[in-house]
Amino acid sequence: MGVLLQMPTFWFGAVIFLLSQFGRFCELSAASRTTLFVRSNIFSQLKPRDLTDSRTFASALFVFLLVSAFGYLLLCLVPPSVISGWLTITNTPVGNFAPADMSSYPLFVSAALIGLTQPIPGFDKIANLQKEVFHQWIGVPERVVGTAAYFAVQILARRSDQGLTAEINRLVSDRWTEEIGAFADVTFYVDHIKRVELDSENALVEVKKGSVREKKFVIQDLIFAACVAAVKREGGRALEKLAEALDVKMPPRIPTRMSRVSSGILLAMFCSVFLWFFLPLTGIREFVEAAVGPSNPVLWPTTLYFSGTYVLTNFVPTILGTLILLLAITQRKKPRKLLVPEILDRYATTILGIALLVICYDYLEALVERSASTVRYQDTAGIFFATRIPFFAFHSLIAALAAAVLLVYTVRGDLRDTPAKICAWGMGLVVSLGILSYFYAEARLQYHLGVTSRDFVVAVVLLNALSALVSFAIASLALRRSAEPAPSAMPSAAPTVGS
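RE: above sequence
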């Protein structure tokens, strides 16, 4: 990693990629533009920063660029290590894979992510997918569009066909502009009225003569403009003030899949970094040695490198499996009480996918560790993969078990309707993963490593038990977000011109 950070091409590629990501984040996707365009051709020119407040936009942009930089670093660091490990286990000379000869690799990664080259089909879609996830996280543009549609349906429902003209007169009046001036961007709203030529008496007369359908579109358009103006000024909280001014109700919040796990992701990141620095502490190592006795050899992580390896191997896989599971679970309005076998059967493919993903993850990590080893590998690549598959398959059972338990816990609300049941599920998950990881650690020591280091067992069991606890907390946070009241049916937008 030190060699990589010293490469000028790495930093040049990082700057180019982050500039591209900055521009990408500040543009709406084609689907979002289509959503805005059918409302009004004027709003097709809106940017994401126009659909949320500046603080939310800046915070999301900062996290977006931070994640982009971390992903770029991983793509520049991990693939060469994996290739180097592969060359090592195949006894291929690694002279042609020297760091100096890889100086152009960061530029290749940057160009592939930007989309300037297509050696790997769909590789540039990763950055676009990341943008879509972050836009969905802050509700761009769905929150403003959905709220405006909800407001419009309520207003049109309470107005007769003869009262539509009065509603239009109200929305273009100076009194209305003054009323929303306390929380909305009045300049934007007034400019829009001028663009659609509703600031003159002649234009209003033409609107009054128009059909009911056209009047509904004008009202819908003005309400959407008011929503955008409110959000531009004070963010999403201004929509509540606008709802009060319009004398309508706010739409019930429907948490997205990403919003359900966003708090869990932050919790997992915090715990991972904490454990990374916590394990190598001298006091912790001495406490473990006093508890289980001296080990020979000492396998407790004593450096940040080995501590990071332990965390990535025994803590992260279960967390990733939990996040994948929560994103895969679909929320039903009135779920039927399912039996446990029915639940497991419905999501069997997801659980199997998590297990296979952990196996692939373990092999990639093994190749990275092999590339960092200075000991010459004596066996063949076939033996390398064959001798590790039993242990990696056993290891994948830990994440699969956690996913299965949390799946039933999440879907069956009657199994967590009291605090005692919730605590029982949490403790049961921790104990189950602790026992399974104990047998996994013993198997690795006896059949793979050939040593009897008790500190290794303690480290593996501790990290897996903590991963169970954190996974349970992530699932509980997701359930709390999902428990917010959901509407029975989201009102559809008023008909638009040409539909």
